[in-house]
Amino acid sequence: MTTSKRQLAMVMDLNKCLGCHTCTVACKQLWTRDDGMQHMWFNTVNTMPGEGTPRGWEHMGGGFDASGEALPGKLPSKQQFGEAWKFNHEEAYYGGKGQASHLAIKGKSPTWGPNWDEDQGAGTFPNSYYFYLPRICNHCTHPACLEACPRKAIEKREDNGIVLVNENRCRGYRYCQEACPYKKIYYNEMRGVSQKCIFCFPRIDKGVTTACSRQCPGRLRFVGYLDDPAGAIHKLVHEYKVALPLHPEHGTQPNVFYVPPLSPEEYDADGNLTGKMRIPLEYLESLFGKSVGAALETIKKERERSRRGEKSELMDLLIARDWIKLFGPFDRDPRTVEQVDPPA
């Protein structure tokens, strides 16, 4: 297992996610605009329950078993990720056909995309439900992708635990894609290399938080070190234990954590509230493990304290009135950082 001196982590509060995809667009504009990256979304926001991207990623294997042995994984296809669609922009905007022409996909109709099942969820009216799940690379403590690479092209930074692909060593074997149980690694066919979220390390190195976290209007993303006892990350993960890893059973020890979503109550046939959670606890346990029930109870208990006018550090943390404190030591304004243009 590769170890680092410190581990950088992210916590996302799913009770505050708007599903607006601002984080996705911020990441896309910054990191995946080059050739061969059109289909890549290092940051995605999936509707849950849902198939997500790549389609059915939760059932594609990878990771480790309880003894630490690697488990086989499937290689997602381009169709399961959702290819970059081409639209008839010229015809629709400049073709002079007025209302006779509308924006449409050019070529073969797609069968899946990164947000194909957005806002569908599960359940039946009036007890239907869904919530949003933003996903990036988990920058795991025990990365399956790193162990699977025969080229040693995947590295875990010693100073902060960020997991990176060394594209100079990568030869595009794609064993990393098979091994990752979260399927957050993409393949650049034009360059013949694997690519993934880099946790905005050039920004982190300058004291600036990630693009996805700084641009988030919902104030749901916390960034910081797991071992900082004064930081929000440590308190949410280790002290209050309300921030949980996604699919911990995969054995990679992910360092992206989630505050699970609270649920509205179900209605009975007469339209009366039943007191039963609309989002089944069993489903949340399938995502975040058996600790999710205790985490939700802690949140409810602290919420009631706050409603009574009592002090609740947890509620103050989650409300995030001072948004810049979400980012721990990475609170520098990106406008103050000198931009270095790449060589011509």
Describe the structure.
The chain has helices spanning 22-31, 78-81, 89-94, 144-148, 175-179, 201-204, 211-215, 232-239, 281-288, 292-307, 313-319; strands at residues 8-13, 44-48, 131-135, 154-156, 163-165, 185-188, 193-196, 221-225, 244-245, 256-259, 265-267, 273-277. The chain has one domain (8-70, 113-336): Alpha-Beta Plaits, CATH 3.30.70. A hairpin with a 6-residue loop joins strand 4 and strand 5. It is globular and about 60 Å long. The protein contains eleven helices and twelve strands. The longest helix is centred in the last third of the chain and has 16 residues, at 292-307. With 344 residues, the chain is of the alpha+beta class.
What Rg is obtained from the alpha carbons, in whole angstroms?
21 Å
Give the overall silhouette: globular
CATH fold-level assignment? Alpha-Beta Plaits
Q: Which oligomerization state do the chains in this entry correspond to?
A: single chain
Mean pLDDT: 95
Catalogue the unreliable spans: none
CATH architecture annotation: 2-Layer Sandwich
- How many beta-strand runs? 12
Characterize the biggest β-sheet: 4 strands, mixed
Q: How would you classify the helix and strand content by structural class?
A: alpha+beta
